[in-house]
UniProtKB/TrEMBL annotation:
<keyword id="KW-0175">Coiled coil</keyword>
<dbReference type="Pfam" id="PF02463">
    <property type="entry name" value="SMC_N"/>
</dbReference>
<dbReference type="GO" id="GO:0009432">
    <property type="term" value="P:SOS response"/>
</dbReference>
<dbReference type="GO" id="GO:0006310">
    <property type="term" value="P:DNA recombination"/>
</dbReference>
<feature type="domain" description="RecF/RecN/SMC N-terminal">
    <location>
        <begin position="5"/>
        <end position="521"/>
    </location>
</feature>
<protein>
    <recommendedName>
        <fullName>DNA repair protein RecN</fullName>
    </recommendedName>
</protein>
<keyword id="KW-0234">DNA repair</keyword>
<comment type="similarity">
    <text>Belongs to the RecN family.</text>
</comment>
<dbReference type="InterPro" id="IPR004604">
    <property type="entry name" value="DNA_recomb/repair_RecN"/>
</dbReference>
<keyword id="KW-0547">Nucleotide-binding</keyword>
<keyword id="KW-0227">DNA damage</keyword>
<feature type="coiled-coil region">
    <location>
        <begin position="173"/>
        <end position="251"/>
    </location>
</feature>
<dbReference type="GO" id="GO:0005524">
    <property type="term" value="F:ATP binding"/>
</dbReference>
<dbReference type="InterPro" id="IPR027417">
    <property type="entry name" value="P-loop_NTPase"/>
</dbReference>
<dbReference type="GO" id="GO:0043590">
    <property type="term" value="C:bacterial nucleoid"/>
</dbReference>
<dbReference type="GO" id="GO:0006281">
    <property type="term" value="P:DNA repair"/>
</dbReference>
<comment type="function">
    <text>May be involved in recombinational repair of damaged DNA.</text>
</comment>
Length: 565
């Protein structure tokens, strides 16, 4: 429920504030006085795009703020999802700067337009002549029937339904349908992957067999390259090893003999000091190490031989490795082994995909069965409501001056969609003997208005509608019918706050609160203002609505009679 509305620096409005009644609020005024401007400002508050051309003063920012009581709207989950603090009183605010920058706030927390739009559509429901035409859309008609049948929690407002306290039949079905469509999408992706994998399978299998046949080993390339170097330089290596052995053991002044003499000399001196004994021990250790080195050099020299056959064998093995590296565009044996592992996964993935496809297909069929079962329940509930919906709507239209109206709900079964398996169309005729047709073909603007008002009236007891704004929805009616429309609005307002912009005195007289929008001329420009009328001012305004600028005594008397009704 809207508690307070402030509009500052918007179009012809310099500053405006209203505190609407929780019941039926009537707004009247001359054409062009600013009633539609107010709706434009409210639209900005609910997330519509802003235009700096609409600033009253181009040097100042525009601010529109609405305070709402949301204690009965069950919006806690929506606020939680958007990471906003919830309170029973919610403040929406839009600010548009002269530069064109727009900012939105919910309870003083900056939010995106999308967030304020999600919240706003749960707080206010605006219906103008243009908006009423959506009644001709079959998806909108299906929403109406779902609310009437108790399948959902909101009219044309999926956001409210999602965050309502109870799980509706439509939402329950829709969750199963989304799960089914996800599995269907997963199944298609897997089958596409399998088809692609099968196309590449033979090529991958060939590459894998080539690498398997090569029998590559970790560090093999490095070991072979080192071995090849030794094989290709065997004679030079053997010569240098021989020279090293001779330097250690066989030359006239070899190191081993020198160390042996040193050990003998130090042995003779060790009797004189422990220090000489320590030096002898260390020298003897060096001699033993050099003897070991000499032995290993001799073994290496004996084992080093030119081997053309082995050289050729190593060269061929390395050539195979280099060829595979060039083919796979890598630089090392380790990379080839990684490619081999990846090819093994790709070749084996075909079998894994078969298993995944089988499991997904099974789950998809089970989900499809669940969808069809829930769709059947939803469809039966819809069809069970057709008769009472047609009858109730017919009675309301008869009261509103359309006694010959006929309402027929046409139903066709269709493939499952997000809304079920039903294609619904409300057929209408206003005249006796005329065959019912789709609303677009059969209903005039005034008839559309009465249809929408009647439907809103029917749904008022079935769902928690937000504040309803009717913008001249009474166009095309007059007399006693207008009185009945006013009474219908008054009855709806017992459970839902209503703000109605009207030119009809019969409807204006039904309001709990009456606001008058008027133009005020200053020295340099025209300004729109609004005031709440007291009892005498209401009589004067309704008399003017009846008789024009100079109402007669009869007009004043008629105004009093309308108010007394």
């Amino acid at each position: 429920m809207l508690i307070d509305l402030k509009i500052k620096n918007y179009a012809l409005i310099e500053k405006l504030e209203m505190n609407p009644s929780p019941l039926l609020n009537i707004i009247t005024g001359e054409t062009g006085a600013g009633k539609s401007i107010m709706l434009g400002a409210i639209g900005l508050l609910l997330g519509n795009r802003a235009d700096t051309k609409l600033l009253f003063n181009q040097a100042e920012k525009c601010v529109i703020e609405g305070v709402f009581d949301i204690s009965s709207y069950n919006l806690q989950e929506l606020f939680s999802k958007e990471d906003l603090d919830f309170d029973n009183q919610c403040i929406l605010r839009r600010e548009i700067s002269p530069s064109g920058k727009s900012r939105a706030f919910v309870n003083d927390t900056p939010v995106t337009l999308d967030v304020i739009r999600k919240i706003g559509e749960n707080l206010m429901d605006i219906h103008s002549q243009h908006d009423t035409l959506q009644l001709g859309d079959t998806s909108y008609q299906l929403n109406i029937l779902d609310i009437y049948a108790g399948n959902t929690s909101s009219m044309g407002n999926t956001t409210f339904d999602i965050y309502a306290g109870n799980l509706s039949y439509l939402r329950n079905y829709n969750e199963s349908y989304r799960q089914y469509k996800k599995l269907e999408s997963d199944y298609k992706k897997l089958t596409d992957q399998l088809a692609q994998a099968q196309k590449e399978h033979d090529y991958h299998a060939f590459l894998l067999s080539e690498l398997d046949e090569a029998g590559l080993q970790e560090n093999e390339q490095e070991e072979l390259e080192e071995e090849l170097k030794q094989l290709e330089n065997a004679e030079d290596i053997k010569l240098k090893l021989t020279q090293a052995v001779q330097s250690l053991t066989e030359s006239e002044f070899n190191i081993t003999s020198a160390l042996k003499d040193t050990v003998h000399t130090l042995s003779q001196l060790s009797a004189f000091s422990g220090k000489y004994e320590e030096l002898r021990t260390r020298t003897e250790s060096c001699m033993i190490e050099l003897n070991d080195i000499a032995g290993e050099l001799e073994d290496a020299e004996r084992n080093t031989e030119a081997n053309p056959e082995r050289t050729l064998e190593v060269q061929e093995r390395l050539n195979l490795i280099y060829t595979l590296q060039r083919k796979h565009q890598v630089q090392s044996n380790a990379e080839l082994l990684q490619i081999q592992r990846e090819l093994e996964e790709k070749v084996g993935s075909v079998l894994n995909l078969d298993t995944a496809i089988t499991n997904t297909e099974k789950a998809m069929k089970a989900a499809e069965q669940e969808v069809m079962e829930k769709a059947a329940i939803l469809s039966e509930r819809r069809k069970a409501s057709f008769g009472t919906f047609e009858e109730e709507l017919y009675k309301l239209l008869a009261e509103l001056g359309m006694p010959n109206a006929r309402i027929v709900i046409q139903h066709n079964a269709v493939a499952p969609s997000a809304t079920g398996t039903d294609d619904i169309s409300i057929l209408f005729s206003a005249n006796k003997g005329a065959q019912p047709q789709t609303l677009i073909k059969a209903a005039s603007g005034g008839e559309f208005s009465r249809l929408m008002l009647s439907i809103k009236y029917m749904l008022a007891d079935k769902t928690a509608l937000p504040t309803i704004v009717f913008d001249e929805i009474d166009t095309g009616i007059s007399g006693e019918v207008a009185v009945k429309v006013g009474r219908m609005m008054q009855q709806m307002a017992q459970k839902h706050q209503i703000i109605a912009i009207s030119h009809l005195p019969q409807i204006a007289a039904q309001g709990d609160s009456h606001y008058f929008v008027y133009k005020h001329d200053t020295e340099d420009r025209t300004i729109s203002r609004i005031k709440k009328l007291d009892d005498q001012e209401r009589i004067n305004e309704i008399a003017h609505m009846i008789a024009g600028a100079n109402p007669s005594d009869n007009a004043y008397q008629s105004a009093k009679e309308l108010l007394s009704l």
